[in-house]
Amino acid sequence: MTGEGGPEKLLARHRAVLPDWLSLYYERPVELTHGEGRHVWDSEGNRYLDFFGGILTTMTAHALPEVGRAVAEQAGRLLHSSTLYLNRPMVALAERIAALSGIRDPRVFFTTSGTEANDTALLLATAYRRSNQVLALRNSYHGRSFSAVGITGNSAWSPTSLSPVHTLYVHGGVRTRGPFAALPDAAFTEACVADLRDVLAQTRGGVAALIAEPVQGVGGFTSGPDGLFAAFREVLDAEGILWISDEVQTGWGRTGEHFWGWQAHAGQGPPDVLTFAKGIGNGMSIGGVVARAEVMNCLDSNSISTFGGSPVTMAAGLANLEYLLAHDLPGNARRVGGLLIERLRAVTAGLGLVREVRGRGLMIGIELVRPGTDLPYPAAASRVLEAARAGGLLLGKGGGPGGSVLRIAPPLSLTAAEAEAGAEVLAAALRAADAEPAA
Questions:
Q1: Which residues is 135 bridged to in the sheet?
Q2: Are the C-beta atoms of 247 and 277 separated by less than 8 Å?
């Protein structure tokens, strides 16, 4: 315990100076003080296996020595300069990301967050197309800025209906709920394309872009069938509409099968614009946009970024990306994630509380419902979160209002033994919640 008082005193200080709407997990919030590998410790000395990684941000490992050294070495030389000056680490990381992006003739712009990256993508698309009309998916989440909230199709994260863009929502982000859920994959895709065409027919034309997460993160790790966005792309291309792939959560190999989520939909080529953040910095504040040069260079006024692309964060990103690739962590996500998904399906079989275990790689969701119904059960998700913490495991939550989906997204270096240990703790928490009377 620190000399400044325990979690209760820190919570009181938190509530006295921070917004009421700033969410905290757990009835008795936890203060994390340090980490190593896939584990973190709190201020009371408790050790946890981290299955959420700072909301999918600690991508490789806690306290990764390679990243720590890169940060310390760069900080010892120069902390900050802004984009008004040449920046060698920024150019080097941009070169690596451009080559990995799959986008033709790419340009890279760095921001400090995924929210800012998506905000920039909207600026580019609306300026390029000279339209403020944007297509987004139902159940989506793209950040907390005014414009990002305006394209978020999830009421739990949409505090205002006011927006600088005119958003039209289409189907396709949730495979197992909604009016098309009972259809086979091919028919589901056809129905979503028909819905897209119908929505476009209601507009005045000139829609700027479709922005979509290949796997919806905050929405509960949901996705449509592979190839859905390729089918969308045929319709979009005919109208000149841009495709923005929000890779803030799916990027860098987390899904295991691909380096980018869009690659599961590559039948019509790469997106026009790709946004990224979270894992690339392994905890440092990095976001960014990759776009075709024609789109990126469409702005006709000056712009800079004061903190985007800072020498320290770029050094961290380079070291983290090199570690990810050298140790084939996307491959590990595929192998260990596949084992973990199957293990979770096995231990939850027969539990009326569990509607579905879904996911790809180390991006796994467990959707909870009231037993005997198809109704979301946020209270049960909160109980499981508490029980898992008591057992030494940290999880996330997502889905609709209240959050009925347990979100599992550990660092991509997770071992098979750690996956098994986490599954055992989670299984016990789920069985206990399943046995409790419905609230």
A1: 168, 210
A2: no
The neighbour count for residue 294, using CB atoms within 10 Å, is 12
Pair 219, 399: CB distance under 8 Å: yes
Distance CA 330, CA 255 (A): 8
Other CB atoms within a 10 A radius of the CB of residue 298 amount to 16
> pLDDT tens digits for 169-214?
999 999 999 999 999 999 999 999 999 999 999 998 899 999 999 9
DSSP of 175-216: SSSSTTTTS-HHHHHHHHHHHHHHHHHTS-S---EEEE-SSB
Backbone angles phi, psi at 179, to 5 degrees: -70, -15
Answer for the pair 99, 273: CB distance below 8 angstroms, yes or no.
Answer: no
Sheet holding 133-137, edge to edge: 106-111, 287-292, 273-276, 242-246, 209-212, 133-137, 166-170
Structure tokens at 26: 């757990």
Question: Is-contact 376 369, C-beta < 8 A?
Answer: yes
The three-state secondary structure class of 291 is strand
The Cα–Cα gap between 103 and 387 comes to 44
pLDDT in tens, 334-347: 999 999 999 999 99
pLDDT confidence of 1, banded at 50, 70, 90? very low
Rg (CA), the chain: 21
Residue 330 main-chain phi, psi, to 5 deg? -60, -40
Pull the structure tokens for residue 357.
Answer: 């275990």
Q: Quote the tokens at residue 287.
A: 């976001």
Give me 206's structure tokens. 């000139």
> How far is CA 415 from each of CA 22, 334, 424, rounded to the nearest angstrom?
33, 12, 14
Structure tokens at 57: 């941000």
What is the predicted pLDDT for the residue at 53?
A: 95
Q: Angle formed by the axes of helices 378-390 and 416-435, to 10°? A: 130
- Residue the block writes with tokens 């592979």: 226
